[in-house]
Design a protein that fits this description.
The protein has 286 residues and is of the alpha/beta class. 35% of the residues lie in helices and 24% in strands. The chain has a nine-stranded mixed β-sheet, sandwiched between helices. It has a two-stranded antiparallel ribbon with strand order 8-9. The longest helix is centred in the N-terminal third of the chain and has 14 residues, at 86-99.
Length: 286
């Protein structure tokens, strides 16, 4: 595994470009904050590292934060061959860890990022201290998971303005503050050459193959092998991760802890950033 980093500084931290070989894809990585620990942030399906913006400045004093855009998401390269499986993302995260020479990291992943985080923990526990998984489990609510896919497919339209997309987000995320979703909309979109705006994410993420590995019997067996502490955070109103599956995860994980965040659905961090920030601060202080 080999890679290269290119750096660009801004007021919001240092933006790195980590190149993955032999595919020569470029991953966008945001590096900011300071503290005793290094915390890697992994976003959910179809989104980007901007999902952490509602609280990231409040956490920057507690840890060095490494926020990754998965391939095909955010400001990272699109893969011409649409290689967007969970395993590919796992290999990319390991590439970032190796290229930036990170060690004893705390891994925090939401949804797709949670699926990736658990698999990184199973493969390379020696580079991690602990893992936080946000609203993901080896078995998802079928209706909730399908809604995520349908919403992503619907979002791949041409938007007349950023405000139009922000209103669309507000209809689907009733818990979230409108100002948070407005900022998220600004970071989610880029100018469309045909006019208007489009989502930064690759439309090829709609492929059924992308969802391979999200759920499987092997995933439950994998949980038994994870030797580092795992905290699983669920939004109380989540339509994706059920309370029953969360309980099963606690019985399977060797060192697991469950946390439920009130007034939040699947998008826990943007739905209730204040309570989630408290949970994450507590997690980082252990």
């Amino acid at each position: 595994m080999s890679g290269r980093r290119d750096d660009e500084r801004s007021d919001a931290g240092e933006y790195l470009r980590v190149r993955c070989e032999p595919e020569n894809l470029s991953l966008s990585v945001r590096d900011l904050g300071e503290g005793r620990r290094t915390c890697i942030l992994l976003h959910g399906f179809g989104e980007g590292s901007y999902v952490w913006d509602a609280f990231i400045s409040d956490i920057a004093s507690a840890a060095r934060l490494i926020a990754i855009d998965f391939r095909g998401h955010g400001d990272s390269s699109w893969d011409p061959q649409a290689r967007y499986t969970v395993l590919r993302h796992v290999m990319d995260v390991l590439q970032v860890i190796e290229t930036l020479r990170l060690d004893r990291c705390v891994l925090v992943g939401h949804s797709l990022g949670g699926a990736v985080a658990l698999r990184v923990a199973a493969r390379r526990p020696q580079v991690l201290e602990s893992v936080m998984v946000i609203d993901y489990g080896p078995r998802l609510n079928p209706a909730g998971a399908e809604r995520v896919r349908l919403d992503f497919r619907d979002s791949l339209r041409n938007w007349g303005s950023v405000d139009e997309y922000a209103r669309w987000l507000q209809e689907r995320r009733p818990f979230a503050d409108a100002a948070i979703l407005s900022r998220m909309a600004q970071r989610s979109l880029c100018l469309d050459p045909r006019g208007g705006w489009r989502l930064k994410a690759d439309p090829a993420l709609c492929s059924d193959a992308v969802w391979t590995g999200f759920e499987s019997a092997e995933a439950w067996e994998m949980l038994k092998l994870i030797s580092v502490p795992v905290t699983v955070v669920r939004g109380m109103g989540s339509a994706v991760l059920s309370a029953n599956v969360l309980g099963q995860m606690m019985r399977v994980l060797p060192d697991g802890r469950a946390v439920t965040v009130a007034n939040a659905g699947h998008a826990v961090m943007s739905d209730n950033p204040r309570e989630f920030t408290q949970v994450l601060r507590s997690f980082l202080s252990v």
